[in-house]
Amino acid sequence: MKHLLLYPALLLGTLPAIAEPWDLDRCISYAVENNITIKSRQNDVASSQQNVTDAKSRYLPTLSANAGQSWNIGRGLTAENTYADRNTSNFQWGASFNLPIFSGLSTTRQVAYAKANLATVTEQYEAAKEDISLNVITAYLQVLYCKELNEVAIGQVELSEYELERRSALLEAGKIPEIDMLEAKSQLAQDELNRTQTANDIRLALVDLAQLLELDDIDGFDVSPLDDDSSLLTLTPEDVYDAALQHNHTILAARNGIIASDKNISLAKTGYIPTVNFNAGLGSSYYKISGMPNDPFGKQMKNNYSTYFGFSLNIPIFDALNTRNSVNRAKVQSVTARLQYDDACQRLFKSIQQAYYQADGARHKLKASEVAEDAAQKAFEAMREKYNLGRATPSEYEQSKTKALRATAERIQAGYELILRTRLLEFYATPH
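RE: above sequence
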């Protein structure tokens, strides 16, 4: 019974047994592949890629064909200066060709702007994968934390069951009053309630993790312990921040947003630049008037056939201030993009600082809690021996047990806090 409090032999059987628990890497990869937010960002990338293709298509010429048939039924003036019914029929066809020779740099700048937007959206997609990965790490460790607390709770129940059996035997022997056994029953009920609560906490933590993974059915879903939880703080917050600035996708997205906003200003300014186009076309028609001689279809098509070509120059003089307003709007968006970048950098540094000092605090707390746990456990063992010899009261025994339990819980909490914050720092400092 010496280590029963901290290391129970039995696990709670309320969770379904599984053959293959999920490790952390599998959870992260599955979430990245199936999370709805990730899929939405991926679709944004596809849309931005199409925008680049659309912008490039503006370099291409356009070719179109048209045909039409019309009828006019009514009266008209004849050659004899009288009115008579004059039903007409008209058929015409044509084809036109347009080639942009100089678009005022709008096409070139539109392509550059679309590419910059694509780079921004791509980084936002990668940033979304980073965010979901961090959330999965947090949820995964919460499951493990709840599991370890549940194991402690199971150990408490086993101790209380043993104590109840012991006091029942003493009561039958007439060595203790009945109230001592009733207190043991009450303590067992409280410990069983705590075990139930910690088991439910495991289920809730698993539900939270499963939601991040977009699992439809979590029956039998469970996670495995971490292979290595001995991460050390080897970098300063400044070191982590400098590394994160080079590869953190939220920062890269904001940085590309500045580039895209500058490209948008250049694009808006093309409204001041003239454009030159080459145009060409051909066509013919057939016209028929009732009651009058009409040339045959083929003859009219031949005689009415025509072609044209030429150049057109468009010089913007005054466009109701549309171009100026577009430029000013783009400049405002550029300022916003720079503010968003500064905000992203500040938030990143704050997150890193918080994680670092929380990890450092958890490390010191873990060392202290390990000492406290060891002392509390030894004190409990000594108290239990005194209690078994009749030199300590049940109240003193329960108080000592409670202190040992609290010390263990604090050690577990500090340990997982250190693991979580250290892994967050490692995540920020490592390219993904």
